[in-house]
Design goal:
six-stranded mixed beta sheet, five-stranded antiparallel beta sheet, signal, 2 domains, Immunoglobulin-like, ConA-like_dom_sf
Length: 351
């Protein structure tokens, strides 16, 4: 959502769409099996398509000794939305128990019922089962000779563990069993179902959103303002529509832009405004953005303006800027990560 009397997108080639992104991986199950203490394994659900799985890793925090960081990295392969990945300490007993092979083996996956597991994106923990600083023996999440499985309620990975978000077989539930299929309390393989988005909006909330939302351009085949406020855009320079993150997006290059007119109701001040957009660059060269590329520019009275975009030579950083006419000059917030990578990103700024 953004207020925008004049919208200029000046990338060499930028696609823009407004959509919701899902989390990519989530831990859904852990098992401490009975076949000579095997299988010791994890089940992981893929929330969204992943082009390169090697950004993700796993770690085991044994006996409450705290995090050991990343101990296993996935290979540089893709992963498909809606599939389950299985990681095991070894493959033979895993196959004997489940009847199929694991996708990956992790030799130090020593989950013995009282150990926490961490899922990483690069070096940042994005999901946890158990508390790395607590020995799980006797805890609500104790899975000795048993299993734990994520309930279908939580919609995203959780770096802070909640025991109530999981269901448990109970300790020693798998003792004496030979296969998962014949077990009295089998591990519920691939039964996690991500919750559907809740699109229910109360009448009061809908009214408040309409009041606060100044304009919204999905760019899905036209330049209509879907907020209902009537700030439809007009294209200049012949931009085209291409496949977007969901639906279509507008592709702009050179002097092409979309302008949404002007209105005194949309004039911004130095506070209380937000700009947001999905964008994707065609160029992966940071030098392409040396002089700056604005995704959205909102011109206020005089020479004052607000903008979000990318700028940089050695690194193409996102920025959020407010330039005020008079003595206050220009104020800018700049990121420190390059976004010239031909991937979709959501950029939002609230001033």
């Amino acid at each position: 959502f953004f207020r925008c009397p004049n919208m200029f997108i000046l990338f060499l080639c930028v696609w823009m769409s407004l959509n919701v992104a899902n989390s990519n991986l989530i831990i859904t199950g852990v098992i401490d099996g009975p076949l000579s203490n095997r299988p010791r394994a994890l089940e992981i659900y893929v929330y969204d398509n992943i082009a390169d799985l090697s950004s993700y890793g796993l770690g085991v925090a044994n006996n409450g000794g705290g995090s050991d960081g990343v101990e296993f990295n996935f290979p540089a392969v893709s992963a498909t939305k809606g599939t389950f990945l299985y990681v095991s300490k070894e493959s033979t007993q895993f196959n004997n128990w489940f009847g199929f092979n694991p996708d990956y083996t992790m030799s130090n996956l020593d989950v013995t019922g009282n150990d926490a597991v961490e899922l990483f994106l690069a070096t940042t923990v994005i999901d946890r089962f158990g508390d790395p600083s607590i020995d799980g023996n006797g805890q609500a999440w104790d899975y000795l000779d048993g299993w734990a499985y994520r309930r279908c309620g939580p919609a995203a990975p959780a770096a802070i563990f909640s025991a109530t978000s999981w269901q448990y077989s109970g300790t020693n539930a798998l003792d004496g069993e030979s296969t998962n299929a014949a077990a009295a309390s089998p591990f519920p393989t691939a039964t996690y179902i991500p919750p559907a988005p809740d699109w229910t909006v109360s009448a009061n909330l809908a009214s408040n959103l309409k009041e606060l939302l100044s304009a919204h351009w999905p760019m899905d085949g036209d330049y209509t303002d879907s907020s209902g406020n009537g700030y439809d855009g007009t294209a200049s320079g012949g931009p085209s529509f291409v496949s977007g993150k969901i639906g279509q997006a507008v592709s702009l290059s050179g002097a092409q832009y979309v302008e949404a007119g002007s209105s005194s109701a949309l004039i911004l001040s130095s506070d209380d405004w937000s700009l947001a957009a999905w964008f994707k660059t065609a160029s992966t060269s940071s030098a392409s953005f040396e002089t700056g590329a604005r995704i959205i520019t909102v011109r206020s009275s005089g020479s004052s303006l607000a903008a979000i975009g990318i700028v940089g030579d050695s690194i193409a950083q996102v920025f959020c800027m407010w330039t005020e006419e008079g003595a206050n000059g220009q104020k800018m917030i700049v990121g420190d990560v390059s976004f010239a990578d031909s991937q979709w990103h959501h950029l939002a700024c609230t001033w």
